[in-house]
Specification:
The complex is a heterodimer.
Chain A (H helix, E strand, L loop, with lengths): L1 H25 L7 H17 L5 H23 L4 H20 L5 E3 L2 E3 L12 H4 L4 H23 L2 H11 L1 H6 L4 H27 L9 H14 L5 H17 L6 H16 L7 H12 L7
Antiparallel strand pairs in A: 1-2
Helix pairs in contact in A: 1-6, 1-9, 1-10, 1-11, 2-3, 2-4, 2-9, 3-9, 6-7, 6-9, 10-11
Chain B lengths: L1 H28 L1 E10 L6 H20 L3 E2 L5 E10 L4 H12 L5 E3 L4 H9 L17 E3 L14 E3 L4 H15 L5 E7 L3 H17 L3 E8 L7 H10 L3 E5 L2 H13 L6 E4 L6 H11 L3 E4 L6 H12 L8 H17 L9 H14 L2 E2 L6 E3 L5 E2 L3 E6 L2 E6 L4
Parallel strand pairs in B: 1-3, 1-4, 4-5, 5-6, 7-8, 7-9, 9-10
Antiparallel strand pairs in B: 2-3, 11-15, 12-13, 13-14, 15-16
The chains are: A mainly alpha, B alpha/beta.
Chain lengths: ~300, ~400
């Protein structure tokens, strides 16, 4: 049982990471900076619980606010460029954050033991959950409470004027601008929201792995962050969740017994999935179909 | 009468045959399976480490099973069954794998390969045994490969059978100094973003060479994924040190050595990282690595070590510094299971795991392939070691301090 609860935690945290990229992608931007924001959330929340004795909730919130603030600051210069240039700019930011933590030492003595981040050797003993009697079930419920809050907020936003504005910018910037939408404000807002969400995910990640180091927040994680919404589809927030379950649950865990073949199949299955469902595993068609099933209105329009 | 005889001729051999068949079945019924799980990197850059560990664990289990198995608490014979899981040298996957192992019948887990997996993994274990407030996982883990210093103290459920680099390099630099009193300076090369390499240069090689009387002139830094070492080797060339100590894994060690050859950097002596005393270094750059000296806790210099190496080779693995530790671990576990009267039954699983942990914690010395291994209170090992050097495409023993 513990294993499945642990797997549910991983799926939850990766869903948050994927949703952080989803918000930015709604505006038509592709950001590889999410791993950097995730790292900021992880280190800040970890430091607050380990060094300052904070409870995890305020620690996560502070980490998320700082990650969001950093996304806001980065958003202005980064979003002046588009497409591949933006990918490179955000990738550079992600690497900057990673290398910052690679060189970041801040240790204090606590109860005779030195604790805190130690550059390339990482930051160990972030043990808020076990030290405070949280069982695997408690942690899983906490992770999913955060996931549900984030998903609900994005779902609501998607159905509000804000969502329409984001999608309008994503569909056609020129048309959106002609309609009086301030592109910079919209893009920076999306980037800030994405940074905040990634920071939340990072805060949980640091605490369920108990040890973080710069290598955890590299290009691979940044690629996964954008792969989830791309694979799942941008029609709604559930696409990202479906993609995370597919990648983390099926490909990573389900195929573990296949050893080295797993890596080959991993790529092949993603390519296959993208070919079979080019607009995402949970595209508009799947959404409409589900809606039809629940409302009993027969076959949905595509 | 004739009928009686013919009946006897049929029934007699049938009973005899049944008896013969039953004879080997009888001990089988008294046998139980002792499940031991292994885990490590079986894919990715460090794939060979996991492949070798699995082969060595299987070979050790086969050897024990063929020698009569393990005597369990109720006198039953136990046969060891090894299952191996791939964690891809990834912290999240390592945690997931250990949680999965804990849901199986495995009594103990052997692994992982990478220190960046071991560190978080030990963090999710209960820190102090019997601390009811700590909800960490209660499962014994015995590490064969992850070598970064001082990890076992993270949890009382964590144990390691990895060499003590502090001691090995301290003695080796002293020995080198005694053998070559004319060598005065050391320059380092460090794979900066890999926890083990970084730790070993800054906390071990650099300090230990200084303790031995060498002047440390500086260090060149590179990353695990680097493929170009021009600048770093140029720095090395400018330093003109007598000894170059490279704290990096085989992949970048070979890259640096090849660049050193290209730039004609020829120090009087080369020292390498423990993890580079493996087949990969020789496969990658035997010519350039010629003469490099590395302390290692494994070399086929004793009959037991030779046997382990041969048994592993038969199963497609290579016994080296890291994987050979898995052979010792499986044998240590056999002793602990017998000493702690482990039952290996489904209903005693939790108690058996605790018994194994307690047994491992109580060990002061264990047998090893090169000789007796000391165990520390923090769950670490102090293993015997030799100094090997690359010679004509092979690792040859240069000095054996055990003798």
């Amino acid at each position: 049982m513990d294993f499945y609860l642990g797997l549910a935690q991983i799926i939850g945290v990766h869903t948050i990471l994927g949703l952080s990229a989803y918000v930015v992608m709604l505006t038509g931007q592709l950001s590889l900076a999410q791993a950097g924001f995730f790292a900021i959330g992880a280190y800040v929340a970890g430091m607050l619980t380990v060094l300052a004795g904070f409870h995890i909730v305020p620690a996560m919130l502070v980490g998320a606010v700082l990650a969001g603030l950093m996304a806001f600051i980065v958003g202005f210069p980064a979003l002046r460029v588009k497409g591949l240039m933006l990918v490179i700019a955000t990738l550079a930011f992600g690497e900057f954050v990673r290398l910052f933590f690679f060189n970041f030492d801040y240790q204090i003595s606590k109860g005779g033991i030195t604790v805190g981040p130690l550059g390339g050797e990482g930051f160990r003993q972030i043990r808020f959950f076990p030290e405070n009697g949280w069982t695997s079930l408690d942690v899983m419920l906490f992770v999913w409470a955060v996931v549900i809050i984030v998903m609900a907020a994005l779902w609501w936003m998607d159905r509000s004027r804000a969502g329409a504005v984001l999608r309008a910018v994503g569909e056609d910037e020129l048309a959106a601008q002609s309609a009086g939408i301030n592109l910079t404000v919209v893009k920076v807002a999306a980037m800030t929201a994405g940074g905040f969400i990634a920071g939340l995910g990072g805060g949980i990640y640091a605490h369920y792995t108990t040890h973080i180091e710069h290598l955890n927040f590299g290009v691979i994680l940044a690629t996964f962050a954008i792969a989830y919404p791309i694979l799942g589809g941008l029609s709604n927030v559930f696409g990202t969740l479906v993609a995370v379950i597919f990648i983390q649950g099926v490909l990573v865990e389900g195929l573990r017994f296949m050893g080295d073949w797993r890596n080959l199949l991993f790529g092949a299955l993603i390519v296959l999935a993208m070919n079979v469902r080019p607009r995402g595993l949970f595209d508009e068609r799947a959404t409409a179909l589900l809606k039809g099933l629940f409302t009993g209105r027969g076959h949905a329009r595509t | 009468m004739q009928r009686k005889l013919s009946a006897l001729t049929i029934v007699g051999p049938a009973i005899a045959a049944a008896g013969l068949l039953a004879a080997p079945l009888q001990p089988l019924a008294m046998e139980r399976t002792v499940h031991i799980a292994g885990f490590g990197a079986k894919s990715g850059v460090v794939r060979s480490f996991g492949v070798n560990t699995e082969a060595v664990m299987l070979a050790a289990a086969k050897h024990i099973n063929e020698s009569g198995g393990v005597k369990l608490g109720d006198g039953t014979t136990g046969k060891i069954k090894v299952s191996f899981y791939d964690d891809r040298c990834n912290a999240e996957e390592g945690i997931s794998v250990l949680r999965r192992i804990a849901t199986t019948e495995a009594l103990v887990a052997v692994g992982p390969t990478c220190s960046n997996v071991a560190e978080p993994l030990f963090g999710i274990l209960q820190k102090k045994v019997g601390d009811d407030k700590d909800t960490g996982l209660q499962f014994p883990v015995f590490t064969d490969t992850a070598i970064k210093g001082g990890l076992a103290k993270i949890s009382e459920w964590a144990f390691r059978n990895v060499p003590n680099e502090m001691e090995m390099y301290r003695q080796m630099f002293k020995w080198i100094k005694a053998q070559n009193p004319d060598l005065k300076t050391v320059f380092g090369g460090v794979e900066e973003d890999f926890a083990h390499s970084r730790f070993t240069w800054y906390k071990v090689m650099k300090t230990r060479s200084g303790d031995a009387g060498y002047e440390v002139l500086g260090e060149a830094k590179w990353l695990l994924a680097d493929t170009n070492f021009t600048t770093q080797v140029r720095k090395m060339r400018k330093a003109k040190a007598d000894v170059v100590a490279i704290s990096a894994h085989p992949f970048t060690t070979c890259g640096v050595l090849k660049e050193m050859q290209r730039q004609r950097v020829k120090p009087k002596l080369l020292v390498g990282l423990t993890s580079s005393s493996s087949l990969e270094t020789l496969q990658g750059c035997a010519k350039q690595a010629e003469g490099i000296i590395i302390p290692t806790s494994f070399a086929p210099v004793t009959p037991a070590a030779k046997m382990a190496a041969e048994a592993a080779a038969k199963l497609g693995g290579s016994a080296d510094l890291h994987s050979a530790a898995a052979w010792e671990i499986v044998n240590i576990l056999k002793g602990v299971i017998e000493g702690q009267k482990v039952m290996a039954k489904a209903d005693t699983l939790k108690a058996d795991r605790r018994k194994i942990r307690d047994g491992l914690a109580n060990l002061k010395t264990t047998g090893g392939l090169l000789g007796k291994i000391q165990r520390t209170d923090e769950g670490e090992a102090v293993k015997p070691y030799v100094y090997v050097h690359a010679k004509a495409g092979e690792w040859a023993v240069l000095h054996n301090p055990i003798k």
